[in-house]
Known about the structure:
- The chain is mainly alpha-helical and 103 residues long.
- The chain has one domain (5-102).
- It has four helices and no strands.
- α1 (10-33) packs antiparallel against α2 (42-64) and α2 (42-64) packs antiparallel against α3.
- The model has no long low-confidence stretch (mean pLDDT 88).
Amino acid sequence: MVESERLQLKVIRIAPHIIDTLFLLSGIALVYQLQLNIFSQPWLLAKITGLVAYIALGTIAIKRGPTLQVRVIAFVAALATFAYIIGIALTKSPASWLKLLVS
């Protein structure tokens, strides 16, 4: 957000791609190992969809956002998406945190 010179370091430019790829591969490996059909497990489909959205928003927040305002909005949305994914992991429901609030 502050146009740090550190963003130009090779390791900083590459690390998010490696981390995001590992997250996505972990999700795919989970589906494969447990022999789950993501279309019959709504929570898993929501989690993987959320992960893809998180990656896209993170990319916009870090470097693809044309203005600071767009990058800040994408950053906040990425954090909200991450919280949603955690809620899905805890509840095994696409309703995420709402399921805990209603219970």
